[in-house]
Design brief:
Length: 203
């Protein structure tokens, strides 16, 4: 695993790298990041995420991130294994080819426990909703909060989440807010799709 290999990554860096690769997979499967864009960003060397990971080309991945930073807001593609606010990134071993090779199976959908290779991709984000990524992120954020840990440790974890704004809004709550706001839109605006929505609370 990324945390137990010859050049182990910290837990947070490993989790961020996994999320970034999953998001790249989502963009690729939804056609937002087509083969032509992979090729353009890597000077024609790679045409898919799987190709790039299999080659273990960290430099090409960093170049791809630089291109994506121009297209997407936020800190998703600051650098491999970092969201910008990740304090451990600077002290952890840098991402190397072996780390990327470990992620090939994640992209292909290999059965990790048995080591079997799949003739066909076992999953595609063309059908899996993006909410899955949010749920994984939320799981990573909460998994270290042990209800049996001492009270001060739990307070410290919650304080850190408050400081970084690391909160996930459940889908049902987001849908409720959208439904409530929807009825205040001018009549006919939703049919013409010519309106803008401002969310001051959006992170």
């Amino acid at each position: 695993s990324l945390m137990t290999c010859a050049t182990p990554l910290s837990k947070s860096v490993s989790q961020i790298l996994l999320l970034q690769v999953l998001f790249l997979a989502y963009l690729e499967d939804r056609g937002i990041l087509p083969a032509a864009d992979f090729s353009a960003a890597t000077n024609g060397k790679y045409h898919s995420l799987g190709d790039l990971l299999y080659a273990g080309d960290v430099s090409a991945l960093e170049t791809l991130y630089a291109v994506l930073r121009e297209q997407f807001n936020g800190d998703m593609f600051v650098s491999p294994g970092s969201f910008g606010q990740n304090e451990e990134a600077s002290s952890s071993p840098s991402i190397n080819a072996k780390h990327l090779e470990m992620l090939v199976g994640l992209r292909r959908g290999d059965r990790a426990a048995s080591g079997q290779f799949s003739l066909f991709r076992l999953y595609t984000f063309a059908y899996i909703p993006v909410a899955l990524l949010s749920a994984i992120y939320d799981h990573f954020q909460h998994e270290d909060i042990d209800i049996n840990s001492d009270y001060s440790a739990r307070l410290k974890k919650r304080s850190e989440k408050r400081r970084t704004g690391s909160y996930f809004t459940p889908a049902h709550l987001a849908q409720t807010c959208v439904s409530l706001a929807w009825k205040y839109l001018p009549q006919g605006a939703t049919l013409k799709n010519n309106f803008y929505v401002l969310d001051p609370a959006c992170g």
